Structures are given as C-alpha cells and as structure tokens.
C-alpha cells in the first residue's frame, strides 16, 4: 500500500543555463517538473512510499518525463494515450537576476491530462493510501481534470491535501478562486504560498492571520502558508506554529514550495507532530533553493542537518488562537 498518492500534470521544463536568455540560448537544460510529481519526489527521497498518477501522450517526450521521475524512486502510474491524440506539455523558463524578472512561457494546451478521468487513475491506491495531493496548477487545465481532481480528493481514504499553486499564465485569479473554493470542502489540508493567498483568496493581513482566517472560514483541519526565504507557518487546532528559514545563497527558488509540501507530508505521515513536520518542510525548501532546477533532489541527511540548525533557534513555537 502506498503512503502518498499525488495526481497532476508533469511538463518538461526547458531552461537556458547560467541565467542566459531564451532568445539567444544555443542549449537548454531539461527537467520533468510539476507540483504533483515534485511533491512525490521530495516525499520519496525522505522515505515515504509515493505514487504519482497522471495521463500522458505516448511519445519520446512523455517517456522521457516518466523515466526521470522513476529515477527519483517514486512509483509512476500513468495512463498512456496515442501520440496522435495528445501532446507532452512544455514549460520554458528563463531565470532572472535582479532587476530582471524570471520569465515563464507555458505550452501546455492539448495535453493528455486535460481528458483524465477517475477510471484512468489508481483509485484503489487513493482510497487505501494515507494521503492524496492535487494542485491548482493541474486543476487549471480543463473542466474535466477539475472534476477528476475533485473526485480524487473526495475518494481519499486518508488525508486529502490541496495545493493552491496559482499559475497566472494558466488562468485568472477570479477563475482560480471560484473553482478552488468550490473544492475546499473535499480537502482536509490546504497548502499555499502567502502571495497566492492574497491574490486568489483576496485575504489580507499577516501570514498568521491569513492562515487563521482561511482555516476558520473554510473549516480546514490544517492550513499551511509558505513564505519563501522567510520560512513558513501552520495553523492547526486553532494554534499557529511558525518556523523561520535558514539564510541561503539562492540558486533557484522554483522548487522550494513543492519541496516543503513533500517533506511536511512525509513527516506527518511518519507520525511527527506539526512543529517537527514544519521544520522538515522548511529544511527541504531551504536546501532546494541551493539546487539548480525545479526538482527537489534533497537527501535525508541534508534535511536533518538543517533541522538541527533550526532547532538551535527554537523554531516552530506555537501561539494561541487568533481572535
């Protein structure tokens, strides 16, 4: 029985090396990346039996994505379709350097997952697993996949986890808000970046206030708010748990949110309390910022070392309920 099942699209990301520009690059680095697969990779690398479920076109590019993910130790459960019926999603990413912003160009329409239905997924694993995860990044792709994602959350025999994962290049904030809030009743846990909470849910205030407002309003069991280089916090049982980040020289930040989720869920599924899981999530995110590319290729020893550093600073302290 798998511990964690994630469902979502994985695209191939093509990026020029060393902060080069797409329009002048003569070579591109390639990664298989998506919120669902990245979460599965992070959890798997930290010892959690993880399955990523998806639907892909049977092309060399689709097989390239699956081969890479299997190399990280996760189980891949893919429904394959004929190459003539769909295509592999692509994302072009150009890393910026202050004051130049990073640039993202998604080429993800007409992909196989847009037509994914529950019957094409490992629903027995969804029902038997300890947790399932789906993200807004995938839900944005079509009405069919939105309905399938909701079916996955509702069918979860264990904890159902929804990642807000807002991508403005895929849908508008108003579309995301309408769709995702309709799905909130099916989720036990919400994980979101602080900026996404403010943009999509139109909540204002400090991160701790945001988490409390969302948890109370939508009746979540747990609300996690990540804050990038500033750490993260968790609202659980009307109590706020917080952890600062460890200062790093950031190489790339695109995978840190997914790394946090994977590590946090890994430790919760292993029986850790909120504060310990929070520290492991922050540690995994911290390490991922030091690694080129979007895939969280962290190791348990590295994560534990950072957790020890966080313990020295007494992170994860709990505060009483906000009023």
UniProtKB/TrEMBL annotation:
Gene3D superfamilies in UniProt: 3.40.1190.20
Domain Carbohydrate kinase PfkB residues, every copy: 1-294
Residue ranges crossing the lipid bilayer per the database entry: none
Superkingdom per UniProt: Archaea
Keyword Plastid: no
Pfam family membership, one: PfkB
A GO molecular-function annotation: kinase activity
UniProt entry keywords in alphabetical sequence: Kinase, Transferase
Family: Belongs to the carbohydrate kinase PfkB family.
Full protein name: Sugar kinase
């Amino acid at each position: 029985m798998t511990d964690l099942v994630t469902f979502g699209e994985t695209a191939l990301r093509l990026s020029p090396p060393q902060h080069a520009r797409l329009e002048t690059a003569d070579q591109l680095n390639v990664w298989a990346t998506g919120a669902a697969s990245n979460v599965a990779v992070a959890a798997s690398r930290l010892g959690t039996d993880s399955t990523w479920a998806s639907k892909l076109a049977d092309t060399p590019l689709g097989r390239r994505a699956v081969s890479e993910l299997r190399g990280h130790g996760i189980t891949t459960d893919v429904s394959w379709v004929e190459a003539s019926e769909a295509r592999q999603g692509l994302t072009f990413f150009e890393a910026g350097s202050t004051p130049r912003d990073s640039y993202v160009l998604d080429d993800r329409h007409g992909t196989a997952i847009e037509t994914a239905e529950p019957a094409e997924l490992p629903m027995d694993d969804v029902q038997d697993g300890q947790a399932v995860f789906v993200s807004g990044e995938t839900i944005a792709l079509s009405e069919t996949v939105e309905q399938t994602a909701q079916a996955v959350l509702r069918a979860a025999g264990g904890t159902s986890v929804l990642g807000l994962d807002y991508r403005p290049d895929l849908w508008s904030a108003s579309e995301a808000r309408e769709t995702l809030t309709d799905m909130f009743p099916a989720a036990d846990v919400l994980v979101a970046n602080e900026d996404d909470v403010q943009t999509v849910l139109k909540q204002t205030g400090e991160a701790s206030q945001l988490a409390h407002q969302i948890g109370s309003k939508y009746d979540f069991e747990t609300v996690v708010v990540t804050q990038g280089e500033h750490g993260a916090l968790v609202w659980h049982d009307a109590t706020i748990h917080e952890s600062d980040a460890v200062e790093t020289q950031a190489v790339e930040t695109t995978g840190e949110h997914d790394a946090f989720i994977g590590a946090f869920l890994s430790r919760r599924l292993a029986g850790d309390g909120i504060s310990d899981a929070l520290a492991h999530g922050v540690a995994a995110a911290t390490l991922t910022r030091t690694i080129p590319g979007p895939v969280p290729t962290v190791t348990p020893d590295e994560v534990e070392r950072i957790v020890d550093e966080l313990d020295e600073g007494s992170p994860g302290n709990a505060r009483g309920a906000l009023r």
